[in-house]
Amino acid sequence: MVHSSNAIETRFWIICAPRDHVMQSVKGGFCQLTHGRTKVLQRMSPGDWIACYSDHASSESNLPCQCFTAIGKVAEREVYHRALDEQRCPFRRDVHYSPVNEVDIRLLLSKLSFIKNKTYWALPFRRGYLEVSESDFRDIAERMLEEAFSP
């Protein structure tokens, strides 16, 4: 069972990124948002939870994925820069990821309250991130972790 010992109110986030980027993040133990979205990372606190949603399998192709691909808990380290090359220096936060099974979002559409229109269910993901309720996050996490989720 996954637990949080954080006394501060825990928040729950979904970060949207291609699956190949998510897998790099899981391997490296971090999360990052595109286009320099530092403020979102700064709003996250140690002990918050993130789920990664991947609309596409790769940033290089249009092959759909449409799955939740990772879950992790935000670590203590503050937001930091990581130079990838001369042109890319994204902001990151460290994350402790849990082993999960990827879950097709269609299996959860009827349960997720932040998806108001089931026909246009992808709209909430367009910004690249969103904060969700504990209940919605629990539905995602329990499907991915195959066990009870308790923040």
Mind sketching the topology for me?
Blueprint: E1 12-16, H1 19-28, E2 30-32, H2 38-43, E3 49-56, E4 64-74, E5 80-81, E6 91-98, E7 103-104, E8 129-132, H3 134-145
Parallel strand pairs: 1-3
Antiparallel strand pairs: 1-8, 2-6, 3-4, 4-6, 4-7, 5-6
Total E-strand runs? 8
Count of helical stretches: 3
Q: What's the name of the CATH homologous superfamily?
A: ph1033 like domains
For the record, the count of structural domains works out to 1
Q: What is the CATH architecture term?
A: Roll
Strand content is 25-35%
Spans of at least 5 consecutive residues with low confidence: none
Radius of gyration: 15 Å
**Top CATH class:** Alpha Beta
What is the fold named in CATH at topology level? Answer: ph1033 like fold
**Silhouette:** globular
Tell me the helix content.
10-25%
Give a quick account of the main beta sheet: strands, pairing sense, barrel closure.
8 strands, mixed
Averaged pLDDT, please?
A: 89
Judged by helices, strands and strand pairing, the structural class is: alpha+beta
How would you spell out the order of helices and strands? EHEHEEEEEEH
- Between the first and last Cα atoms, what is the distance in angstroms? 10 Å
